[in-house]
Write a structure and sequence with these properties.
mainly beta; Porin
Length: 299
């Protein structure tokens, strides 16, 4: 398997209690305000909408390492996604190890999440998907308890046209044990490509469990410029995000460079109102066989 590297850094007054809804989101999603549920392909489908795995036809390996300064957290993740077969799917594993402050002492918090996501064309224009995962959470914090079990996500994508999708998903909808690290949430949005080089999207997510329940919504755009006779490309991304539970508004932006065999993405997000959180993420992907994405008429 090809090794893939990513770096994440959080500064300012970032929340020290990350969870599976936020820790697994990659740089492309961050840059466009997390608005990719209608067009989530590859590793993005693991976090946002597994139905989107069938939107393209490629084999891609992705993984990463990250560091969160707020709680000295190390974040590790790897995934392998293959959408070239009849049932597109991904295998993935994520680890988060943090050392948050517990009063005057330093505590330890670890989370392991691993599993598989699958997608299928139910009928022409409608894709469905599901993710099954095992999680194990342990903590020495005085107000947290250990938990482990299984959880399941489901999602659906409706292809209105080749350039317009609507997506919806439910994360951690069923879990064998409850923990704030694996909260339930539902979300949906649209993803459109008005011209071949420009895509736009808007998403909304409702977190159903925990102290920070409420709506989180955002939108963004990506401009993809090709070079070298179409063999390389440059992505320019920008977006915004509002979290009503945190009372915070964020601005985000990102850059990407892609060839036929690999790509690299760098993104950043900062709170512009209601906080001082900053995040910068860089990721890299390596591709195997890549085929033309299926059109609506081919599904």
């Amino acid at each position: 398997m090809v090794a893939v590297f990513s770096v994440a850094w959080l500064a300012g007054n970032a929340r020290a209690g990350g969870d599976s809804l936020d820790d697994l989101i990659g740089p492309r999603e961050i840059a466009v305000g997390e608005a990719m549920r209608g067009g989530a392909t590859g590793a993005s489908g693991i976090d946002l909408n597994p139905a989107g795995l069938a939107l393209n036809r490629e084999l891609v390996f992705e993984g990463g390492y990250g560091y969160r300064a707020a709680d000295s957290a190390s974040l590790v993740g790897v995934s392998a996604c293959d959408s070239t077969n009849a049932v597109p799917g991904c295998f993935f594993y994520h680890y988060a190890g943090a050392s948050p402050e517990d009063g005057a002492m330093s505590a330890r918090r670890t989370t392991h999440v691993g599993g598989m996501a699958l997608s299928r064309t139910l009928v022409p224009r409608i894709l469905i998907g599901a993710t099954a995962k095992y999680y194990r959470f342990s903590s020495t914090m005085t107000d947290e308890t250990d938990a482990s079990g299984t959880a399941f996500d489901v999602g659906a994508t409706v292809r209105v046209a080749d350039n317009l999708n609507f997506g919806a998903s439910a994360q951690n909808l069923w879990a064998s044990a409850e923990t704030p690290q694996v909260p339930r949430a539902i979300g949906g949005g649209f993803y459109a490509r008005p011209i071949p080089v420009l895509s736009i999207g808007f998403d909304m997510r409702w977190r159903l469990d925990g102290a920070s329940t409420g709506a989180r919504y955002g939108g963004g755009a990506e401009l993809f410029l090709r070079g070298d006779g179409g063999q390389t490309g440059y992505a320019l991304r920008a977006g915004g995000l509002r979290d009503n539970a945190l009372g915070a508004t964020f601005a985000s932006a990102g850059l990407g460079y892609a060839t036929m065999s690999w790509s690299i993405d760098v993104s950043g997000r900062r709170a512009v109102k209601g906080g001082d959180e900053s995040i910068v993420i860089a990721s890299m992907r390596f591709f195997g066989p890549r085929l033309a994405a299926p059109s609506v008429g081919e599904m």
